[in-house]
Specification:
By secondary structure, the chain is α+β, with helices and mostly antiparallel strands. The chain contains 25 helices and 16 strands. It folds into 4 domains: 138 residues, Beta Polymerase, domain 2 (2-Layer Sandwich), CATH 3.30.460; 89 residues, no CATH class; 183 residues, no CATH class; 161 residues, Beta Polymerase, domain 2 (2-Layer Sandwich), CATH 3.30.460. A 6-stranded mixed beta sheet has the order 13-14-15-12-11-16. A 5-stranded mixed beta sheet has the order 3-4-2-1-5. Strands 7-6-10-9-8 form a 5-stranded antiparallel beta sheet.
Length: 658
């Protein structure tokens, strides 16, 4: 099923508790304060695997927890959850009778375990109050969305670097005429080429105009091409000198000499013209090189600035790069994350709190630059933790205690240093009270689990009675089908974790009866019964797992009742599933060839009936009565009488059923 919404929870009658929380709960609210609410709901029985654990609005002003998560948080003494038990009646918006019963046990949750959540939270708020990474500082830094160009750099001088935009600006170069090529074996390093012909076209100018104006762009272009020209002349002369040397040493003939010189002239036409005395100047060379755009340089980023990385292009092998560039991709990624956080904060920020903090930031007094609400929370939590330690309980209404002082803190009537001094004194008092406290040590986990279990059971019993004409949960068979799939998946995960061959695992109990179509119609599947073939090592592993998960194990009992079975079952919960596991000798053969899709063996009906007959518990006798009434001779079962077995008859496993 999809995630639950506030409306759906109300419509389906799943809400248990709704209350006012936040500053109005502590009576420290102002006329500008929002009304924050909290709630507890119960997940419906028709949920699949995607259980909704909490529901909240965009700003977290309204937040509801599912009963299970709410109580798990309560067991950790979460302040926001513990306070819900002590909400006064006038701030309760809705309360189900079952949650009223839970709140009746509220004092069970006030223990020494609350010291760290309350006191630790206070310390964290102190650290946040004057933190320089608070988003209000980002606002004052004129937070703007950057592009990858802001994280591109090139060399500047002997040991410096400069942003590529500043470097381009020095020479009036355009980023959309640049082309980048990866520099092999160097991460985020590129050779940058420039399309001068495209520059003329986009800028609407010519080489002659730039030369006449003696522009920065022309001077840069001339230096670039002079260097390129000189390199080509040098290479040509070097090659010709080598050719003449080979002729002089007799390695080539005069004809071969002429042919070799022609090839050099073809590669470097501008050089041959100069050597032959033609008036071919560097300007002519520049004009030739900038006559036609390359057409492949696409810019460092796109024109609208929406690129999330730099762009690459192909280039002519005869081109010379204008510079080498690096791109700080990790820095750009960090900026994007920070900017998203800033935008989210800006859309959700409390206007009054923001303006108050902004006033402190702009005051010019460093002692007034702190988040007054963080400081307010620090003082309140230290005071409440001290009261808990002294056995006064959880006091939410701060009227008549420290409300006036807290309101002055919220209104920034003290300097930061003065508040820290007072907070140090209160913290010392809190630590002393915690050390001398005589309140209950911790929350009783077993009590809480039973409380949750009883609440769920009573809630759905009432719901079923209220909707007899139209039950809200699906038919038992459909529910058992979903439960069966879920339990078998968890069993597969467990056996894989234990590195067991699934052929050595046999499913029995209610799942097996359901698979055979013989589970009593009103019977609900709630656990996993399995038999595993294994050795002593498996016994030890299961013992360890049982102890870790708080279960029971009855190891090596003397009155062994099953053929091949070493002991009564290991019983424990793993991933919220209750397992009952029997271990057989690894050489014992199962009396079934039936396999499930998951690869496990499926116990026969006779196997299951014999096991239930052996146990003889009331629920086992009831199952026997209902099953046998349909498929066996009813005279063999006398309902209400405890059945006895023939001590010589092997019951588990049964190998001679006829």
């Amino acid at each position: 099923m999809s995630k639950l919404t506030f409306e759906e929870i109300r419509e389906r009658g799943l809400l248990l508790f709704e209350y006012v929380r936040g500053s109005k709960l502590y009576h420290t609210d102002t006329p500008e304060s929002d009304t924050d609410t909290g709630g507890v709901f119960i997940c419906p029985q028709d949920f699949d695997f995607d259980i909704t654990e909490e529901v909240s609005d965009e700003k977290n002003d309204t937040k509801w927890w599912e009963l299970g998560k709410f109580m798990r948080l309560a067991m950790t003494s979460n302040p926001a959850v513990i306070e819900a038990f002590f909400v006064p009646d006038e701030l309760v918006l809705f309360e189900h009778p079952l949650f009223k019963e839970i709140r009746r046990h509220r004092d069970e949750f006030v223990t020494k375990a609350a010291f760290m959540p309350f006191g630790g939270y206070a310390v964290s708020q102190i650290k946040k109050a004057q933190g320089q990474n608070k988003k209000i500082h980002w606002e004052m830094e004129d937070m703007k969305r950057m592009t990858p160009l802001d994280f591109c750099y090139t060399f500047d001088g002997r040991q410096g670097s400069v942003n590529i935009q500043e470097w381009l600006g020095r020479y009036d170069l355009r980023q959309d005429c640049c082309g980048l090529v990866n520099l092999i074996n160097m991460k985020d390093c590129y050779l940058m080429y420039y399309d001068f012909a495209q520059h003329f076209r986009l800028a609407g100018t010519t080489l002659d105009e730039e030369m006449q104006a003696k522009s920065r762009f022309f001077r840069f272009m001339r230096r670039h091409f002079e260097k390129q020209f000189d390199e080509r002349v040098g290479k040509a002369l070097e090659e010709k000198h080598e050719i003449y040397a080979r002729r002089n040493s007799g390695k080539i003939t005069e004809e071969e000499l002429v042919d070799a010189l022609c090839k050099v002239d073809l590669r470097y036409p501008e050089v041959s013209i100069i050597i032959d005395g033609e008036t071919y100047t560097i300007v002519d060379y520049m004009r030739e090189k900038t006559s036609t755009p390359y057409g492949e340089h696409c810019g460092i980023i796109n024109q609208d600035g929406t690129s999330n990385t730099v762009r690459l292009c192909s280039t002519n092998k005869d081109e010379t790069p204008v510079c080498m560039m690096t791109y700080n991709s990790e820095g750009y990624g960090s900026h994007c994350k920070k900017f998203r956080e800033y935008e989210e904060w800006k859309s959700k920020r409390n206007k009054a709190r923001y303006e108050s903090n902004l006033e402190g930031e702009k005051s010019g007094d460093p002692d007034m630059k702190y988040d007054c609400k963080n400081m307010y929370h620090s003082f309140r939590n230290v005071a409440m933790c001290t009261e808990i330690a002294k056995g006064e309980g959880l006091i939410l209404d701060r009227t008549g205690r420290d409300r006036d002082f807290l309101m002055d803190v919220r209104n920034r009537k003290f300097g930061y240093s003065e508040l820290i001094k007072k907070l140090d004194e209160m913290t010392a008092e809190m630590q002393k009270a915690c050390a001398e406290s005589t309140i209950r040590e911790s929350i009783d986990e077993g009590f809480v689990r039973n409380l949750v279990s009883d609440t769920r059971m009573k809630f759905f019993e009432r719901k079923h009675e209220t909707h007899k004409t139209g039950p809200t949960r699906p038919p038992m068979e459909e529910m058992n089908e979903r439960t069966c799939r879920s339990l078998l998946q968890t069993t597969a995960q467990f056996t894989d974790m234990m590195r067991l061959d699934r052929k050595d695992v046999m499913i029995t109990g209610s799942i097996a009866l359901f698979k055979h179509g013989m589970l009593p119609p009103e019977r609900e599947i709630h656990d996993v019964d399995i038999v595993i073939r294994g050795n002593e090592e498996l016994d030890r592993d299961l013992q360890t797992i049982t102890k870790i998960h708080g279960g029971n194990t009855f190891y090596r009992i003397s009155d062994d009742t099953f053929k091949g079975v070493k002991h009564k079952p290991f019983i424990f919960r793993w991933k919220d599933v209750e397992f009952n596991i029997w271990v057989l000798d690894e050489n014992v053969e199962f009396d079934t060839e039936i396999s499930l899709v998951e690869g496990f063996r499926l116990a026969t009906v006779k196997h299951i009936l014999d096991a239930k007959k052996t146990y003889g518990r009331d629920k086992d006798l009831k199952d026997l009565s209902e099953i046998c009434r349909d498929i066996l001779n009813p005279k063999k079962v006398r309902t209400g009488e405890r059945m006895k077995r023939n001590e010589e008859e092997p019951l588990w496993p049964v190998s001679d059923y006829r």
